[in-house]
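Try this one yourself first.
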């Protein structure tokens, strides 16, 4: 796969113009361009620049309403329900993350449950955002059925991305994971590079486990992380997102032709509610250091805390620029016209 080097400034400029062309306001377009660029800058191409053509396709089909904004439908102290009104998943998620942060700063803990939203792209975006504001966050979303329950043959579960973020002075700890062994975005990225998965990631057309991204994407049957444990966690998160938001379940989303009208949960905790913030930081560093002190399985290998490699990738990309698929970049430029 041929690649082209693109700076973050150029990408933001191109994307902002593209989103304005497709009826987003200048302010919304600037946010959307920044978030897609930041995800790409952090090495998450699958939910950054690579996802833009799909996003525009959803806008053109009317599945993403460019003029919609999220609205609060119910308030219960530190908990709220919101309706995304089928607006941009990124813009809705930012709104709900910020509201959960506000509730946490007010009550110590805040929870916002959101229905009728669209794909939030990289879930970690909102974990980093909360951590920058000093809040611990637990965030999750449901999806279309794209993963079989353990022991099942047909897709009945979503790979329901799950985020936990913890603020830390030396670098935030951010877990951002789908509940499939590999996200479909990651498989798309490897497929573009004609690379195999390092481990089995799902089933091919003949019901055999496969490391070939294309086989798995064609079958649509991803492997749950942790096998039966990931299968159970996926179902539980779908239940929570659906019940708390009074929105669509993975089952209901699957009845639609496209992945839309999702349900999500944004929970934030303000650790400064306790008075031992310095002790908290020391405890985090103790855990990280204990893990790092263990001998590597192979010489030269290292262990990392969640989010550590993202910070390293970001720094490298800011200096050297981003290596973007030439095919994807050309597609984006063609959309701009």
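Now uncover the answer:
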């Amino acid at each position: 796969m041929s690649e082209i080097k693109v700076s973050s400034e150029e990408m933001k400029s191109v994307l902002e113009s593209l989103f304005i062309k497709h009826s987003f306001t200048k302010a919304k377009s600037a946010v959307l361009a920044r978030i897609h660029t930041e995800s790409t800058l952090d090495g998450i191409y699958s939910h950054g620049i690579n996802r833009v053509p799909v996003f525009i396709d959803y806008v053109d089909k009317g599945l993403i309403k460019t003029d919609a904004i999220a609205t609060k439908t119910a308030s219960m102290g530190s908990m709220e329900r919101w309706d995304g009104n089928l607006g941009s998943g990124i813009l809705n998620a930012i709104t709900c993350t910020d509201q959960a942060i506000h509730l946490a700063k007010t009550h110590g803990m805040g929870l916002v449950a959101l229905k009728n939203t669209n794909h939030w792209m990289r879930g970690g975006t909102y974990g980093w955002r909360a951590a920058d504001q000093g809040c611990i966050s637990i965030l999750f979303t449901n999806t279309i059925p794209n993963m079989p329950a353990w022991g099942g043959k047909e897709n009945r579960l979503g790979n329901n991305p799950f985020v936990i973020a913890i603020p830390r002075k030396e670098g935030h700890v951010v877990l951002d994971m789908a509940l499939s062994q590999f996200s479909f975005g990651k498989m798309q990225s490897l497929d573009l590079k004609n690379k195999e998965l390092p481990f089995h990631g799902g089933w091919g057309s003949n019901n055999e486990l496969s490391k070939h991204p294309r086989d798995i994407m064609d079958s649509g049957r991803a492997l749950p992380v942790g096998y039966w444990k990931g299968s159970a966690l996926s179902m539980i998160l779908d239940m929570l997102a659906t019940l708390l938001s009074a929105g669509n379940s993975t089952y209901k989303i699957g009845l639609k032709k496209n992945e839309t009208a999702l349900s999500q949960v944004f929970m934030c905790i303000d650790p400064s509610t306790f008075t031992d913030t310095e002790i908290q930081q020391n405890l985090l560093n103790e855990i990280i250091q204990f893990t790092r002190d263990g001998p590597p399985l192979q010489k030269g290998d290292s262990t990392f805390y969640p989010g550590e490699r993202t910070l390293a990738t970001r720094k490298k990309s800011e200096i050297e620029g981003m290596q973007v698929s030439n095919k994807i970049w050309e597609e984006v430029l063609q959309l701009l016209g």
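Discussion: The two ends are 24 Å apart (CA to CA). The chain has a mean pLDDT of 95.
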